[in-house]
């Protein structure tokens, strides 16, 4: 494999001149530039990204730890993060933790050893990243795109799930519904607890009673919505409307209603949460709470890059505001 010295020898110039031609960071005459570029082409020389990163102490790489699932929300969020990285000249290295603490810390160590410039975390609701590993790499800034409490100096970006749950339920109340159920997510996850709390707040404010069996705990996956809706339909008096705490479960709930011969919204009104791309193509299109996934990814990358350039800046804790997307399901 050809080296920069080989290029310099063939072009009859110094290695520093070859470097200036490649990096375009200093004036080089057209004649010298042509010689260097001809040598590069003849030798099929490719600059070493590793060597360059060691020289400037940057890899232009962002690491991301995420617990993936069948929920399309996560893939759409990662898409927004990757796009934002690309637009800013960074590469994204994505690691799936599968919700496993050992795998999370192994991936964390690997990303740190690869000298990523910064780290995004969306995997900490169940397990905290190893403090020992983070302390070994104190210069790597971190942004939490998550909800779990974290004692470190990371910047934090969150959705306002409490407000979103309240908005969704209030919308159903404003439509005239009084018997409203809720399919919540797993209560070991903060967004699920906050969305359920928002539902309860809106019901209490309107003076409405939450009947026994009208709060079902799902799993934030398609199957959870299907099973939870079946449980609601088995009640002696089925609800008029249901706030479902994420769109993936709403998709499952639609199937349960279809199999029961019931129509949305004529028989049961539905409001979801997340506004995944699929929501607008459901039948009828799903009314849902929009999480600004692209904005979340863009903001996370911008905050991280700003932290990379200025490690001394004050810790940031940012909260994005949910928006109701009114369609046909309620």
UniProtKB/TrEMBL annotation:
Residues 2-56 form the HTH lacI-type domain. GO terms for molecular function: DNA-binding transcription factor activity; transcription cis-regulatory region binding. It comes from the Bacteria. Gene3D superfamilies: 3.40.50.2300, lambda repressor-like DNA-binding domains (1.10.260.40). Pfam families: LacI, Peripla_BP_3. This is Ribose operon repressor. InterPro entries: HTH_LacI, LacI/GalR-like_sensor, Lambda_DNA-bd_dom_sf, Peripla_BP_I, PurR_sensor_dom. Transmembrane segments: none annotated. Keywords: DNA-binding, Repressor, Transcription, Transcription regulation. The keyword tRNA processing does not apply.
